[in-house]
Amino acid sequence: MSVRNAAKIFTSVMAAASLSLALLMPGPAFADAGFRQWVAGFRATAVQSGVSGALYDQAFRNIRDIDPVVLEKARTQPEFTAPAWDYFDNRVHDQSVAVGQQMARKWKPWLDRIEARFGVNRYILLAIWSMESNYGEILKRDDVMRNVVRSLATLAYADPKRAKFARTQLIAALKILQTGDIDESHLSGSWAGAMGHTQFIPTSYLHYAVDMDGNGKRDIWNSIPDALATSANLLKKNGWQAGKTWGYE
User: Fold this and answer.
1) What is the model's pTM?
2) Is 116 contained in some domain?
3) Which of 98, 122, 195, 218 has the fewest CB atoms below 10 angstroms from its CB?
């Protein structure tokens, strides 16, 4: 056998092997069809949990496939622990403190009312706001914010490790839409479904969300009073005691 013929045979074998592997791997069309089948199948579960069938169809009407960004974030999410003070040193700096002082002045009337109603120190709420969304700056980033329904459906369908969590949160997210507090085009959050200025997952939103500004909607995405009051309500309902210190070094 000549070298040239051997090379041709080797190339053909490699091409055939590559093709066989490709046929075993679901391509985009197959993956999308599988996802759409999952969405159709999950509808009954959502309806049994109290979600309107019409709302379910509306929420998924423009969602045709999984969100690859969500799967990449899930795949690369680090699992580690760090000492609390190392974490704080990386997140608390002169600029964040300066912005926090500005926000304390800007939102003082609302912070007064939230403190009076829930008994939670305003500086704790401002610190939560800073840590969770950098005072809302993260919500402006299209590269970070995802469609919550699509994100959670992606995890429920394609991430076995997070599937149970994602299914529960997806039903809760659909129930949020059902309340009318927000519509599906504005229900945004992190890749894992954390929402708004203080990053509440859907189930926590349903338990603790507050309409502080009195406009008839519990809007933690666009209303700073609602977002901060929601965090205060969570703390109060979980045992926060006004005037007590929360920790020490």
Assistant:
1) 0.82
2) yes
3) 98
